[in-house]
Amino acid sequence: MNIQRPYVFLFKITLLAFILSALPFNDAVLDSSPFWMLLLYTYWLIHFPVKGSLFIALILGVLLDILQGDLLGQNALALIVASIFINSVKQSFYVSNLSTQQVYVFLSSCLYLAFFFLSHFLIHGLIDNYYLLLAPLTSALIWPVVRFFLYKFKHQ
Questions:
Q1: Which residues of 20-41 are buried (b: 16+ CB within 10 A; e: fewer)?
Q2: Structure pTM?
Q3: pLDDT tier at 136 (50, 70, 90 boundaries)?
Q4: What is the separation of C-alpha 76 from the centre of its chain, rounded to a whole number of angstroms?
């Protein structure tokens, strides 16, 4: 059983998150799709204890802002706040059953969405796209699949 080094694995899942975030779908599916970067980064945070995770969240968020054409720092702030939450429940997250992990993922996705909305509201005003409200739910529902595949991917 070969376990990869943390930063090599992070690079691989970051590329995967960028590919999943850039897939062409219609607007309703794109807006209600899970926060891929948050899901994959959450898995990495839980399974690889490294220092500087907030700085890494900042870098990944800025790269995601550039990829999606969002306000620079919007995804970065949201990813940092969500990763602070995940770090605070890390011990409980790692030993929890799957449904409790889904609740943690849902809560971190809600935090991500709240800070995403807040930063957008301060600059542009209210968002009239209500499909984004489904993103935390889809993130929590897809978490078991993500966890299963990343576990298999980690041990290759």
A1: ebeeeeeeeebbbbbbbbbbbb
A2: 0.89
A3: very high
A4: 11
